[in-house]
Amino acid sequence: MYVCVCNQVTDSEILEAADRGATTLEALGNQLKVATCCGRCAECAHELLATHASRQRCDNALQAA
User: Fold this and answer.
1) Is residue 10 helix, strand or coil?
2) Helices (H), the chain
3) pLDDT at 65 over 80
4) The overall pTM is greater than 0.85
């Protein structure tokens, strides 16, 4: 699904950037140009980053157990 229509960025691309270490909207903007035009995608992109971070914490906790 497209998250950023202005720059044709998908949710998969955002999650891949998060896998590579992007943790902020600014980092996504630098890597993928997300939220650098109209800004309508900023909230959705931020939510994807937060969901990814939460999943990572859960995965790490499960691996540690």
Assistant:
1) strand
2) 11-19, 25-32, 42-64
3) no
4) yes
